[in-house]
Design brief:
heterodimer; A: MetI-like fold; 2 domains; two-stranded antiparallel ribbon; 78% helix; 1% strand; B: 253 residues; Rossmann fold; six-stranded mixed beta sheet; four-stranded antiparallel beta sheet
Chain lengths: 289, 253
């Protein structure tokens, strides 16, 4: 029987299906477009040279993207090295040590960190950290160290909130079990709470990695944008994202240069997908165990 | 009571904020005996148990008045080391709470945090504790496997083994069999009878048959008060207080 309720129910269902399809199609279209443009690079460029040559000089026909992969990975690892332990320490403090009011202040601050546009981070890096790095370590100041420091601050909220939730969600009886054996608070946190929360904390670290790897503006402002293999912590280099944003506008569509940039973008996309798979794998393993 | 008292509560009051959860409890717990705490939900029996190893310290707003003497010394005195106290008074919880690590590491956790790192000593402790908890034969071939793969009853015996590994003198058990099936329950009950030789045991239970089967003394709690306390045999055959009789004959609770 056709009636009004039946029709509107049907309509709503089709609308939802259509929305889901539109979103999925958009993602697939981006993947196909970026992938196709990127992979066409290899019509003109030797894939081996693209991935393993450090020489990037497109006007001369040199398309070695190694410096950008290395730059991105180095800056991201520095970010994790600085931001990871700090974020985890904050999370432990918020979950198990701080009084309630302080925790909510820190939560708010953490949310604020997320909301600050990356250009502001970049600006602070440029005006505060770069001169500091130049005076302290010599050299140009710009480079992976400052980029990593900026990224460390930017990923701090991700690590802190995910890890804090993970620690808080460890069942109370586990904590009591450890305390009941005569464990101190610190032994309980280190020996029982953190291991129990580890899968989710790891997932948070991976999310943070993806975030740092993909960050563009802030990095571009402090990295120096010199297309060469990381020469040192405080000398100019470049990353995948910063190189794309620097050069994309000046390359003719369809040229090998343009396509090489697309290939780098495709590398970023593939990296995000791998990270998502890794997060799922890590969290499923946690559940299954 | 003729028996030698290991733990002695004297005029113990427990408050959660303004709520008075325990009212002037005085009770002696005999050495190498099983003392059962019974009573309806919310009567304070679990709260009382948790005052004995200061687990209530963790609860915000919880406050204790009166004394609990362990070997004559007040465990709430300011100079008491809570960590050491909890080493001497072990606890087994209502739901099995094995740590997310291997069976071996679960049992070795306690000795390790108390500074034992000698592999041979730990091996022996793990074996003797698992034997003490009647679990050794079932797990000896998979000590390195995750403890979370054990059945509920095995997990609970593992938790008992974990407590035994720190060589406590007193064992507190908070309804240790309430989440288990009948076969696992009877294993735990057998175990408690054996453990009595070595340990002083205080057990909270909802199950009156269980209290009658395994305990030497029974304390009946009601609304935060200790109504009656005495030998289990006398209490179940000839209760002195009408409320005790009503409870154990199933008229309420």
């Amino acid at each position: 029987m056709l009636n009004r309720a039946y029709v509107s129910d049907k309509a709503a269902r089709y609308l939802l299906w259509a929305s889901a399809a539109a979103v999925t199609l958009t993602i697939v279209a981006i993947l196909i477009f970026v992938g196709k443009e990127g992979l066409l690079t290899f019509a003109d460029v030797n894939p081996f040279a693209f991935f393993f040559s450090p020489e990037w000089d497109p006007p001369q026909g040199h398309f070695g993207a190694l410096p950008f992969f290395v730059g991105s990975i180095t800056a991201t690892l520095i970010a994790l090295l600085l931001g990871g332990p700090l974020g985890l320490a904050c999370a432990i403090f918020m979950a198990k040590v701080s009084p309630g009011w302080m925790r909510s202040v820190m939560r708010q601050a953490s949310n604020l960190f997320v909301g600050i546009p990356s250009v502001v981070y970049g600006y602070i890096g440029m005006t505060v950290l770069v001169p500091w790095s130049r005076e302290t370590f010599g050299g140009q100041g710009v480079g992976v160290l400052v980029a990593g420091m900026i990224l460390a601050v930017m990923i701090l909220p991700t690590i802190t909130t995910v890890a804090e939730d993970a620690i808080r969600d460890v069942p109370g009886p586990l904590e009591e079990g450890a305390l009941g054996l005569g464990a101190t608070r610190w032994q309980t946190i280190w020996g029982v709470l953190l291991p129990a929360a580890r899968p989710r904390i790891l997932a948070g670290v991976i999310l943070a990695f993806a975030r740092a790897f993909g960050e563009t503006t802030a990095v571009q402002m402090v990295i120096g944008n010199a297309p060469r293999l990381v020469p040192g912590l405080t000398s100019g280099t470049s990353t995948l994202t910063s190189q794309i944003i620097m050069e994309m506008g000046q390359t003719p569509p369809g040229s090998p240069w343009n396509r090489a940039l697309f290939m780098m973008a495709f590398g970023l996309v593939v990296n995000s997908m791998l990270m998502i798979l890794l997060v799922r794998w890590v969290s499923n393993r946690g559940v299954a165990k | 009571m003729a028996e030698q008292a290991r733990i002695s509560a004297q005029n113990l009051d427990l408050y959660y904020g303004a709520f008075r959860a325990l009212r002037s409890i005085s009770l002696d717990i005999a050495e190498h005996r099983v003392t059962a705490l019974i009573g309806p939900s919310g009567c304070g029996k679990s709260s009382f148990l948790r005052t004995l190893n200061r687990m209530n310290d963790l609860v915000q707003g919880a406050r204790v008045q009166g004394k609990i003497l362990l070997d004559g010394k007040d465990i709430y005195a300011p100079d008491v080391d809570v960590v050491l106290l909890r080493k001497r008074i072990g606890m087994v919880f209502q739901r099995p709470n094995p740590f997310p690590m291997s069976i071996y590491d679960n049992v070795a956790y306690g000795p390790r945090i108390h500074g034992e790192s000698n592999k041979r000593v730990l091996d022996e402790l793990v074996e003797s504790s698992l034997k003490g908890a009647a679990l050794w034969d079932e797990v000896k071939d998979r000590l390195s496997k995750s403890a979370l793969g054990l059945s509920g009853g095995q997990q609970q015996r593992l938790c008992i083994a974990r407590s035994l590994a720190v060589k406590p003198e007193v064992l507190l058990m908070d309804e240790p069999a309430s989440a288990l099936d009948p076969i696992s329950t009877s294993k735990i009950e057998d175990l408690i009878r054996d453990l009595r030789e070595t340990y002083t045991i205080v057990i909270v239970t909802h199950n009156m048959q269980q209290a009658a089967r395994i305990s030497d003394f029974t304390a009946f709690f009601l609304s935060g008060e200790l109504v009656e306390y005495g030998s289990t045999g006398a209490m179940f055959t000839n209760p002195k207080d009408q409320r005790t009789e009503d409870y154990i004959t199933g008229r309420f609770g």
